[in-house]
What does this fold into?
Amino acid sequence: MFSLRFRLLPRRPTLAGQLLAFQLTVVLLVLAAVAGVSLAQSQAVFTIEEGRRVTQLAESLASSDLVRGRLPAPLPRETLAPEIQSSLERWQVSSVTIADARGEVVASTNPLLIGTELPLGAGVLDGRGWRGEIELGGRTELVGQAPVLGPADGEADGEGDDTIVQLGVAVVGQEVPSAGAMLAGDSPDLLLYLGIASTLGVAGSWLLARRIKRQTFGMEPREIAGLAEHREAMLYGIAEGVVALDPQHRVTLVNDVARRLLDLPDTAVGRTLGELDLSARLRDVLAGAAEGADQVVLQGNRVLVVNRMPVAKDGRPLGSVATLRDRTELAQLERDLGSFRSTAEALRAQAHEFDNKLHTISGLIQIGEHDEVVSYIDALNRHRQSLDLHIAEPIRDKAIAALLMAKSAQASERRVRLDMADGSALAPLAAEDSADVGTVLGNLVDNAVEAAAGHVRDAPLPRRSDTDAWVSVLIFTEPFNGVEGAVRITVEDSGPGVPPETAGEVFEHGYTTKAAAGEHGIGLALTRLVCEHHGGSVALEHTERGARFTAVLPLLHHPAVKEPT
It folds into this structure.
């Protein structure tokens, strides 16, 4: 029953049907307007031309000697009938009528009018002519009325009384045609023209409806409206930023999340990428110059992951759509996770080193070299004291000292020597500042160790000795803009360095010094973000010996323990 009722419901008109109905309505209105204008023009022409003609004919009839001579006769009907009948046939008019001075019809081509009172225009009985439309014999006629003037006694020989009086009225009428007859008479082909125009209008409407239907992929207006609503809900409801570009790299769509992530103005739509305040790296990714999935870019103080998808239809490029994810918070989590990973790596390296030392001691004992065991343990103790002297003493912040010792063990595993430069000194820091300093220091040291180890590994034969691979760390506290102080970190390595043309872009691109091997990351991006969060900076310079990174982190909190005076 429900399905039967549903089928009986009236169907909504389709887009093609609505367009066809609208176009047909417009065509009919235009045709009606054209017909109305043509009819008005025909009526005006008929009134002017036929009015002038019937007036002239009425004046001619009124000035006829036959009419002037016989009108005063007692029975003018019989004497004037032949005259008005011949005038009707000769002039091709609808009626010819003669009335006496009182306005009573005395002769007419319409016998029914004889003896009736003739409708007269204003001033006709006073000797003036008139023309206009009147009801005559049951039909509307355009008539010309002219007074018939003559001598009072009916004699025109000049011997009697010469007083001129009005003897009657001569009337010539032309029937006013109907609207259809007037249109047909005005232009015999008008109906044909109107029919052709109607046919062309209907055909054009149908073709337009089909074209629009094809352009809208066969969807009806309500479906298009629903699709637009769903698109708005999707674009402005998801947590990712969305930026759409046309083939000329003009912004065609941007949702609120993307506007916030990129700090775009409200007028961003319609502007090109070059007109927006975007980093060069981000413009390259959005324009497709940098290809690949999950492109890491920096925009302001944010780390963004961008994925770009080109859009095409039937092989024709329509532009591209890019999604942006804010990875800043994820980078913070990665930083915290990196700290744990660094600790785990340090423990693994120390455990590996400890196992090797235990195996050495065990082997010496097994072969009975007890004196060598004592010498070996003394050497290990002196190495430990050397680490404490070079790291633990100048670096009094326990977290930073532990980090450097762990990095030293990791570097040693990779045959890289980690040295503390002269002048290094660091007092205990607040926990928050210590964590950020550890993030910057750990990232810079990791990049330096990777560069130094890779440079030795890739060196041509004869290969340089492992002692040529080194990393130098200088860290100390200095005054900064009148605040409590700032931590300055300088990390230098013996790696291949960074090309000058790349030095200005490494922080924008967010890759580490491992980028030389094609491996991209966000280590330096995090370093820059942490430094800028503290109001500091990080810089890179190429030296003769390798690369040097210098980071400055103003302290945001008072040190946990003051330096002794």
In short: The first helix runs from residue 2 to 8. Residues 12-119+165-236 form one domain.
